[in-house]
Design brief:
heterodimer; A: 113 residues; five-stranded antiparallel beta sheet; B: 115 residues; mainly beta; four-stranded antiparallel beta sheet; 0% helix; 50% strand
Chain lengths: 113, 115
């Protein structure tokens, strides 16, 4: 049973436009959510996170939105750049479950020049 | 720069030949994790150390063992690698004081090939 799902395996966006990556979860105990970016042959790099007490967190070009009632979060990248092309994983954890991360399956983002 | 280091980056072993992957960190984090990631899949947690306490995931095969001799180092031992163990192995660290949620930081990974 996948508790964290990224339903779009890939996304293609034009440079300069907005990239929106989506993630859904089923476990209502999750209270901390993260996005990681992964280039081929490298480990995931932490990008941005959000606590369940917030509905938005912004860091430069990256904004994460959390809709707890829908159990949905999204990552917005504006403007998208070719260097953003990578696989993006969302992850979730529950403080009362030892903060172990449960990852989604990833979305491959391709930003075209 | 504080970081998580994994050696080697690429490891080739033979079927059934024991192999050890290493991870070190300069972040002084008390929690260290080992994940297995097969191509195009989500990282799968194998086990983690909370300080010196070892925590195994229920579905981690007995073939996988780990050692943490000190705060900075953690090893993944695969006693008898099978073809199905070929994957990227990721080490991660975090600081957990029991109250504050902290981010996990990953190393670059070791890609294991089993011949």
């Amino acid at each position: 049973d996948q508790q964290v799902k990224q339903n779009s395996p890939s996304l293609s966006v034009q440079e300069g436009r907005i990239s929106i990556l989506n993630c859904d979860y089923t476990n209502s105990m999750f209270d901390y959510f993260l996005w990681y970016k992964k280039y081929p042959a490298e480990g995931p790099t932490f990008l941005i996170s959000i606590s369940s007490i917030k509905d938005k967190n912004e860091d430069g070009r990256f904004t994460v939105f959390l809709n707890k009632s829908a159990k949905h979060l999204s990552l917005h990248i504006v403007p998208s750049q070719p260097g953003d092309s990578a696989v993006y994983f969302c992850a979730a954890s529950a403080r009362n479950a030892g903060n172990m991360l449960t990852f989604g399956g990833g979305t491959r983002l391709m930003v075209k020049p | 720069d504080a970081m998580v280091i994994q050696n080697p980056r690429y490891q080739v072993t033979q079927f059934g030949k024991p192999v050890t992957l290493s991870c070190s960190q300069t972040l002084n984090h008390n929690v260290m994790y080992w994940y297995q990631q097969k191509s195009s899949q989500a990282p799968k947690l194998l086990f983690h150390y909370y300080d010196k306490d070892f925590n195994n995931e229920a579905d981690t095969p007995d073939n996988f063992q780990s050692r943490r001799p000190n705060t900075s180092f953690c090893f993944l031992d695969i006693r008898s690698p099978g073809l199905g163990d070929a994957a990227m192995y990721l080490c991660a660290t975090s600081r957990d004081d029991g109250r504050t949620v902290d981010t996990q930081y990953f190393g670059p990974g070791t890609r294991l090939t089993v011949l």
